UniProtKB/TrEMBL annotation:
Residues 1-70 are annotated as: Disordered. This is Telomerase Cajal body protein 1. Belongs to the TCAB1 family. It is found in: Nucleus, Cajal body. Residues 1-10 have a biased composition (Polar residues). It comes from Alligator mississippiensis (American alligator).
Length: 460
């Protein structure tokens, strides 16, 4: 990806949309089902509002995805193994050494797994292809990774995301959305790097305002954008300023603060929005009706994820030592806490493997931890689940984690802003002591069980 430039087409041309007959990797769900790929039953009461909090239905939290039934397409999950430290395959180091303090700010695999997207402090999005050695039957040493495409923004990038139905076999679906300070939302062509469309948010004074968080709906039909006490909803096929405005806080009730991250339930027409005011909330996708408000973090929430079964919500915050696992069958109940070190205001991502069993996160000490969420929580009033694996990845903050959707590959990013000590002075004869050395890098780790087939470790 990024090495060839196809003929340009209008924005979203060839993309699936409500009412389209275009075959895609994920068939569109029927109205009011909220499901992707397989229809889900419509909640009985009320007709258009998702039913949360029914503790008498569904499997216990931690149960993996169901097996494919007769006539259904079989999907093989990657064989991740976190019983032993992974093997470092390759990475990108020199790419982030040209600019001082060019630390990374996370990474995200493409939905089809063909390439990797990274964000860094130089306000540039970079796309990397998978190392060609992974496709070679003979293997060989992997060279340092180099980006095949760079997309420069004009200011600090707040958030970025892939189009959910992206497939490298269909260039018109290869899109990346990004939002940066004092700028509209940009949609980039992931093949050519050209700007395909912009979506503009305006406040009550008709001033352009930036979106702090972005998330496409699972069917790709809408783009949800979070800002101060507001979620705006754009139709992806209609760029511009026309959008639906959904306040999250009105008449001193609701969810206050800047909406920092958004995620959609994979099984119900529900989305979760978190804010820097230390709360997460559940809303109906159709009209934004509030369903539940979750309190408990001691810092602003910076990342959240739904489990594949839709019954658990994972939230993590800045300057907060825990990732909370919420039981959505009983909204407000915390199943277990996962302890990590998050001592700064930096956003530290975490990710779930496709089965929903393992959660992986970095921390400010340079450690990467993996928790087996299928393990029963300890029988204590405030249960804390111990990690199944902890290893030292780098001597700096690991702020980004992304697990490949079909291969046992873990991508991590590292680095943070480094300040000189306040007592340092350039007037000293030796020029003052230098700040600690940063480790700004993108790295790929192989997390497979020793054996044959996909589970074998590549000879790199």
């Amino acid at each position: 990806m990024g090495q060839s430039t196809p003929q340009q087409t209008p924005l979203l041309a060839g993309m699936p949309h409500p009412g389209s007959d275009t075959p895609t990797a994920m068939e569109e769900a029927p109205p009011d089902s909220g499901a992707v790929g397989e229809p889900a039953p419509v909640p009985p009461e009320p007709p258009d509002t998702p039913c949360l909090g029914d503790a008498g239905e569904g499997p216990e939290p931690g149960v993996g995805l169901p097996e494919a039934g007769p006539g259904e397409e079989e999907y093989y999950l990657p064989a991740y193994d976190f019983g032993r430290p992974p093997v470092l395959l390759t990475g990108a180091w020199a790419e982030y050494g040209h600019v001082p303090e060019n630390f990374l700010k996370g990474c995200k695999w493409a939905p089809d797994g063909s390439c990797l997207l990274s964000n860094s402090a130089d306000n540039t999005l970079r796309i990397y292809d998978l190392p060609p050695e992974l496709y070679s039957p003979t293997g060989g040493p992997a060279a340092e990774m180099s980006p095949v495409l760079c997309m420069a923004e004009g200011d600090t990038i707040y958030d970025y995301c892939w189009f959910p139905l992206m497939s490298s076999a269909e260039p018109s679906t290869c899109l990346v959305a990004s939002s940066c300070r004092d700028n509209p939302i940009h949609v980039w062509d992931a093949f050519s790097g050209e700007l395909r469309a912009t979506y503009r948010c305006y406040n009550h004074l008709d001033e352009l305002t930036a979106a702090h968080s972005l998330c496409f709906t699972p069917d790709g039909a809408q783009l949800f954008c979070g800002s101060d006490k507001t979620v705006r909803v754009f139709d992806t096929e209609r760029p511009g300023r026309t959008c639906e405005v959904r306040p999250t806080f009105a008449k001193r009730q609701g969810q206050s603060g800047i909406v920092s991250c958004i995620a959609f339930s994979p099984v119900q027409p529900v989305y979760a929005a978190a804010s820097y005011a230390r709360t997460a909330a559940l809303y109906a996708r159709a009209d934004g009706a509030p369903l539940a408000l979750l309190h408990g973090h001691c810092g602003g929430i910076t990342h959240l994820l739904f489990a594949p079964d839709g019954q658990r919500l994972f939230t993590g915050a800045r300057k907060d030592p825990e990732v909370r696992v919420w039981d959505l069958r009983q909204p407000g109940r915390v199943l277990v806490s996962l302890q990590r070190r998050a001592a700064t205001n930096q956003r530290i991502y975490f990710d779930l493997d496709p089965s929903g069993r393992y959660l992986v996160s970095g921390d400010t000490r340079g450690l990467i931890c993996a928790w087996d969420t299928a393990q029963p929580p300890p029988g204590t009033p405030e249960p804390v689940l111990e990690p199944a694996l902890t290893f030292q990845a780098v001597p700096d903050c690991v702020n980004g984690i992304s697990l490949h959707p079909s291969l046992p590959l873990l991508a991590s990013t590292s680095g943070q802003r480094v300040f000189a000590a306040p007592w340092d002075s350039s007037d000293d004869e030796d020029g003052g002591s230098l700040p600690p050395c940063s480790h700004n890098a993108l790295q790929l780790w192989w997390c497979a069980i020793p054996g044959g087939g996909q589970e074998a470790q590549p000879d790199l």
